UniProtKB/TrEMBL annotation:
Domain of life: Bacteria
Record domain Aminomethyltransferase C-terminal: where: 2-61
Protein's name according to its UniProt entry: Aminomethyltransferase C-terminal domain-containing protein
A Pfam family of this chain: GCV_T_C
Alphabetized InterPro entries for the sequence: GcvT/YgfZ_C, GcvT_C, TrmE/GcvT-like
SUPFAM superfamilies: Aminomethyltransferase beta-barrel domain
Organism annotation: Svornostia abyssi
Length: 69
């Protein structure tokens, strides 16, 4: 879940580790106050907390070069 302090603040809809990027990526529902590009958010899973950042939805291939390959 997305958390703000100790309170729930959003919901993870999907998450996986990207072998190509070497890090975790995911999608989440985040309320307006936390959804600005570049915002730092926290994800809590299994008692552990992870730092995350809101990025542009087209962060991997914004020009579509891989799509057209």
């Amino acid at each position: 879940m997305v958390v703000a302090g100790d309170a729930p603040a959003g919901r993870i809809t999907s998450a996986r580790r990207s072998a190509r990027l070497g890090c975790g990526i995911g999608l989440a529902w985040v309320p307006n106050g936390l959804s600005e590009l570049g915002s730092k958010i926290e994800i809590r899973d299994g008692g552990r907390t992870f730092a995350a950042k809101v990025v542009d939805p087209a962060f991997y291939d914004p020009e579509g070069q891989r799509l057209g390959a």
